[in-house]
Amino acid sequence: MADSTVSPPVAVRAERFGVLRRLFGAPLGAIAAIVVMAFALAAIAAPWLAPYDPNAIAPVNRMQGPSGAHWLGTDQLGRDLLSRIIHGTRTALYVAFAGTGGALAVGMAMGMAAGLGGKVLDSVLVLFNDSIKALPLVLFALALVTIYGASMVTLISVIAVSMAPGYFRVVRNQVMVLNNADFIVAAQSMGASRLRLAVTHMLPNLIGPILVLIAMDIPAVIGIESGLSFLGQGIQPPQSSWGNMLAEGYTYVRQAPHIAVAAGLPIVVSTIAFTFLGEALRDALDPRSGGRS
Amino acid sequence: MNNLVREPILSLDDVSITYPGAPAPAVRGVTLDVAQGETLGLVGESGSGKSSLAAAIIGLLPDGSQIGGTVRFEGRDLAHMPARTLRALRGTEIATIAQDPFTALNPIMRIGRQLDEFQHWRGDLNRAERRARATDMLAQVGLSDPEVRMTQYPHQMSGGILQRIAIAAALLAEPKLLIADEPTTALDATTEAQILGIMADAKARVRGATVFITHDISVVERLCDRVAVLYAGELVESGTVAQVLEAPKHPYTQALLACDPARIGKPTRSLPTIPGTVPAPDNLPQGCVFAPRCPVAIECCETIRPKLESAGPGRRAACHLVNT
Q1: Predicted ipTM?
Q2: Which CATH superfamily is domain A72-285 in?
Q3: Which of A52, A217, B76, B222 could form a disulfide bond with A83, CB atoms 3.0-4.6 angstroms apart?
């Protein structure tokens, strides 16, 4: 027999945590994962972590630089910037996860239907998704905001609709490839039904590419949320968002540049961290790529 | 009872297969029987239609394919039964072993889970019992450490081990008909010999019959009782292995045997080949499909298509030179 001789218990145990082990085995992946977890922690524990009420106005302390009392300084109304950024993290990640979650649900349902259904359904769904993709995102968002008003719900809906075609495309293509995969045919030849094929054989094969797409989409969604909030079409003041904080800081950039820097930095750091996490996940999730030597 | 036993497990009558969008049928007029306890070798070159026949038997031709004639399994017509009924036969009474073990198993699912999944018809067993059966079967196909194999992924194993697992998966169904589609083609020669050994054990265990699809005459000689030779989508000769390999009647079978390296006695610089190529299904010669390449073709071969007719006890051939 040509296979390597293995000492069973060790091999089995190591394999069980293979994905996480490979993810943290890559230095960039480990750093990105830690940064992302820090942002997630900040979002979840914002009320307890923030040293001040993010909306407490103190005009006496306005536009102060970083100090022992206010680590990142204060804004034009004397609000503590660190507290506002921590609460802004909560806003950003809430919008990011709700938006991508919605996009994933809609895109995946359409992708599965297109891949497993007939040719007509597939053509209709492809046309529909390509039409959405053809819309310029900002124009589309501004149109919806004009109709429904600027709010978090509108923002999440815009993101869900405009991101759905990405998931549709990935799921559809993956299902089409899997339709002809030998192991799917083999499962069919053993009597598996369409539902069984979809749920037990196809879905697990979709998780990898989808997780990667989510991790890659989240920075884009953070950018959209910040961008629209910066334009005043997203999260409305006084609720703190990195985007509207950046817009406020931009007004006072000559007198108090630290406001804009404090608001811009988390946008940059979080997008980079999510992107690297996505790439590391992509490498770690493929069991074929992590050959045991 | 007596005539029930004689009833063939699998009976193809004038079967033709047309793929969707294809101008002409890929398989034409194939008639053959596989009896209880028998192993049939289906031999032919690439494109001779042997895999199409297998797909037609298990009902997994692409959507829109047309099957003419009848494919009877224990008297039931597979080609015209509802998809649901046919699906219930797959994995229970009919099991298949795929050609390439590297791609026939789900790459991201542990072996144990897959073997459990394949037994989804066995609602009478709980998960632990199904896994125990699977582990047991892995041991029976000669795998060491079956418990470890159950927890591994396909990429952690070699082709020979994967093919044993595929054989075990098929045997778990306890099928009445086992179809093996070139199970050794993707493997190296040493592993092939081992797998053929396992296959010999496996087919002994099958309650009904085995159909072995191959292009390798020596595999047929080693494993099969009867052989059916396909050429360009038509059955040209069938009979017992001993008869056909000993004294082939059809010129194509004769040529095929002459090309088998195992049968060439004296040293030679070049292996013999059959001149010409297999005709495309939409550009067939008017007469015998083999006539353009046939070394002994006579005038009527060019114009009249020979019928598959009896050529001695238990054998048939489609050739004017045999039947006249």
Answers
A1: 0.81
A2: MetI-like (1.10.3720.10)
A3: A52
